[in-house]
Amino acid sequence: MRRVIFNQKGGVGKSTITCNLAAISAVEGKRTLVIDLDIQCNSTQYLLGETISDSNKTIAYFFKDCLSLSLFGSGSSGSGLESAIHETPFPNLFVLPAHPELELLRTRLESRMKIFKLKEALDSLDGFDEIYIDTPPVLNFYSQSALIAADKCLIPFDCDTFSREALYTLMQSVAEIKADHNQHLEIEGIIVNQFQKQANLPNQLVNELIAEGLPVLASMISPSIKVRESHTESRPLVHYVPNHKLTNEYRALHDEIHGK
C-alpha cells in the first residue's frame, strides 16, 4: 500500500505524521519505506538524525537519472531508487531521503513531462509492504508525482480557519489528479492534528467538517511537547515514548486506516 501525506499548507505536521505512522507499521513487522520529497528534508532528518549531503544518495539521483535517460537514451542501471534507500536505526524501517537539489531539478522535470516516473519506478520496486510519501507543502511536480504514484491520500488538518479554507482547494486538487492521472487514488481521510478537545474552536471546526460529510478520521492527534523532543532525538514516538498518550493516539490512527 502506498500512502501520500499531503497538504498545500505548511506546518500541519505532514512529516511527523508520515514518520510516526511508518514507524508503527515497521514495529508491527511490515517492511516499510518512507519517501521524502520535501526539500526541507524533515522526514530524512527525523529518521536518520541527519540530512544527506551527497545528492546521489538521495531521491534526487533518481530524478537526475530520469533526465539522463531523456537526454541520452541511456542512464545508470536500475530505477535509481534502490541505490538511494537507507536503513534507519529502527528495524524494518527505511527511508529514501530528500535533498535540496530537488528544487533545481523541478523545472527541467516539468518541462520534460516526467510526472509518471515515480509511479513507474514504484511499480517495479519490490520488498516493501508499506510505503509512506512525505510531500512539499505546495502542489508542484513532486507532490503531483506522489499523488499519481499513491493508492491513498491522507490530509493533515490543524484546526484553524485558514486550514479549513485551504482544505476545499486541496480536495479539489486531489480530485483533479484522480480524474486526469490516477483513477485509483482515494482520499483515505482527514487527520485532525494538534486537536485540543477542551477548546471550542477546534471542536466547532471538526464538527462542521463532519456535518459536511468530509472523511474526518475518528482518531485525532493531541498537541504535545513530546513531538518536538522526538524530533530532536530523531526517534519516532513508538521508539521514544512507547507508552505515552500521544504514541497511543498514533497507534489508534494507524489501526483505523488499516481497518483494525
How many structural domains does the protein architecture include? 1
| End-to-end separation | 15 Å
User: How is the biggest beta sheet arranged?
Assistant: 7 strands, mixed
Radius of gyration: 18 Å
Protein structure class: alpha/beta
SSE blueprint:
Layout: E1 2-5, H1 14-27, E2 32-36, H2 42-48, H3 59-72, E3 86-87, E4 93-96, H4 101-111, H5 117-123, E5 130-134, H6 141-149, E6 152-157, H7 161-180, E7 186-192, H8 200-211, H9 225-233, H10 237-240, H11 245-257
Parallel strand pairs: 1-5, 1-6, 2-4, 2-5, 6-7
Antiparallel strand pairs: 3-4
Helix pairs in contact: 1-2, 1-11, 3-4, 5-6
Quick structural summary:
The protein is an alpha/beta fold and 260 residues long.
Explain the overall architecture.
With 260 residues, the protein is α/β, with parallel strands linked by helices. The chain has one domain: P-loop containing nucleotide triphosphate hydrolases (Rossmann fold, 3-Layer(aba) Sandwich). The chain contains eleven helices and seven strands. The protein has helices at residues 14-27, 42-48, 59-72, 101-111, 117-123, 141-149, 161-180, 200-211, 225-233, 237-240, 245-257, and strands spanning 2-5, 32-36, 86-87, 93-96, 130-134, 152-157, 186-192. Strands 3-4-2-5-1-6-7 form a seven-stranded mixed β-sheet, with helices on both faces. Strand 6, helix 7 (161-180) and strand 7 (186-192) form a beta-alpha-beta unit. Mean pLDDT is 93; it is low at 70-78.
